[in-house]
């Protein structure tokens, strides 16, 4: 079935699968802007005025500022909105690039933890649209899935930390406030899978404190409260060892405890396995393998495709325009909407003169297209840009 057909039954729709469920609905832009004008999170005299990174977490349907000392740290049970505003470069009369002090370029990231509630995800979806309206529709919008972060998000947070639990407003959430009794914490540290993010980019993922989560290709940090153990898998990378040392240093700054670093090849490393419930495990013969919590869609440039969403002929169509490295800027037409599958991520380009019907249809089309690619596994990030506000990352994906 073509992606422009089907998938319209409301019961099949999941808030998590789109970063803008209400985008281009019957609620017009004026109403949404008026709503944004009453949101305290946006109306602090800074948002849309000053450059920087700003993060909010959804708590009880409210947009709550995330503490700056926790930037780069997220909980898998939550939904977040991240705004990145930066000054843009313009061409001077002499032909050189100069900073336009009065103009900001914006990117909005809608990050969904793997265990966030549907209410939280839905609130974040609506508020993402609202924030874009507050910024006069000029922002690039990104849907970010915990298990499949985009390269763009990785560049913004080269040291991304994902912890278990979340705000205590939903089902199966864990209170993140300080508790009087310590609970063992196991962190898995590994390199970012994409070569386009940077060689020093890493993930720090809290995993279940069990020996079954150990993997000989990564480094693990076990915090027992009174002591911290670093377990180095025999095949881990030197950079992962270095980053683990930095993580432990941050942990010991807040509390003074002993730290012991153990290589998997050392016999004493069995103590870590024992603490994690593996007292009966023979560490000399056991192969420690555990899937990483990050999925990576293989980059396939030869598979890069450009599709056009158009109702110019009176009926909505979704057609392949071009594929491979021959795709270029000139293939885009401001009268329509285009879907670019870069071979890794999905981009949606909205032409300035696109029709109301095209604007209303692209969400379902992108959703169905992604489902056909992935089966029932969401591992592709989606970003939407408007003509005239594309940014270098979009053009890089087009012309790569």
From TrEMBL:
**GO biological process terms on file:** actin polymerization or depolymerization
Top-rank taxon: Eukaryota
Q: Which GO terms describe its cellular component?
A: actin cytoskeleton; cytoplasm
Molecular functions per Gene Ontology = actin filament binding
The record's section on SUPFAM superfamilies has:
Actin depolymerizing proteins, C-terminal, gelsolin-like domain of Sec23/24
- List, for all copies, the residue spans of the domain called Gelsolin-like: 65-147, 207-252, 328-361
Write down the InterPro entries for this protein, in alphabetical order. ADF-H/Gelsolin-like_dom_sf (IPR029006), Gelsolin-like_dom (IPR007123), Gelsolin-like_dom_sf (IPR036180), Villin/Gelsolin (IPR007122)
Kindly provide the name given to this protein in its UniProt entry: Gelsolin
**Native source species:** Lojkania enalia
Give the classification, highest ranks: Eukaryota, Fungi, Dikarya, Ascomycota, Pezizomycotina
């Amino acid at each position: 079935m073509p992606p422009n057909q089907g998938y319209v039954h409301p019961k099949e729709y999941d808030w998590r699968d789109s970063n803008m469920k209400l985008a281009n609905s019957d609620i017009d832009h004026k109403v949404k802007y008026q709503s944004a004008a009453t949101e305290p999170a946006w109306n602090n005299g800074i948002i849309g005025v000053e450059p920087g990174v700003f993060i909010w977490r959804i708590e009880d349907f409210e947009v709550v500022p995330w503490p700056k000392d926790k930037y780069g740290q997220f909980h898998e049970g939550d939904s977040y909105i991240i705004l990145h505003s930066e000054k843009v470069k313009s061409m001077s009369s002499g032909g050189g690039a100069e900073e336009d002090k009065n103009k900001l370029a914006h990117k909005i990231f809608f990050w969904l933890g793997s265990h966030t509630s549907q209410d939280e995800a839905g609130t974040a979806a609506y508020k993402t649209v609202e924030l874009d309206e507050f910024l006069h529709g000029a922002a690039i919008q990104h849907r970010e899935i915990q298990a499949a972060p985009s390269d763009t998000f990785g560049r913004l947070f080269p040291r991304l930390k994902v912890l278990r639990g979340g705000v205590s407003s939903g089902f199966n959430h864990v209170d993140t406030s300080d508790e009087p009794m310590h609970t063992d914490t196991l962190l898995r540290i590994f390199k970012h899978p994409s070569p386009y993010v940077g060689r020093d980019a890493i993930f720090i993922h809290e995993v279940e404190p069990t020996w079954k989560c150990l993997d000989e290709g990564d480094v693990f940090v076990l915090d027992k409260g009174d002591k911290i153990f670093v377990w180095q898998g025999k095949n881990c990378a030197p950079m992962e060892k270095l980053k683990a040392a930095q993580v432990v240093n941050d942990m010991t700054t807040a509390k003074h405890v002993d730290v012991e670093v153990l290589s998997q090849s050392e016999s004493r490393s069995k103590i870590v396995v024992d603490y994690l419930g593996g007292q009966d495990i023979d560490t000399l013969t056991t192969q420690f393998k555990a899937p990483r919590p990050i999925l990576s869609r293989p980059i396939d440039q030869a598979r890069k495709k450009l599709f056009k969403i158009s109702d110019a002929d009176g009926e909505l169509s979704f057609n392949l325009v071009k594929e491979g490295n021959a795709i270029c800027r000139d293939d885009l037409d401001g009268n329509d909407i285009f879907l670019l599958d870069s071979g890794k991520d999905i981009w949606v380009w909205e032409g300035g003169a696109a029709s109301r019907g095209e604007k209303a249809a692209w969400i379902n089309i992108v959703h169905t297209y992604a489902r056909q690619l992935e089966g029932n596994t969401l591992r592709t990030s989606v970003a939407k840009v408007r003509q005239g506000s594309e940014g270098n990352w979009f053009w890089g994906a087009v012309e790569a």
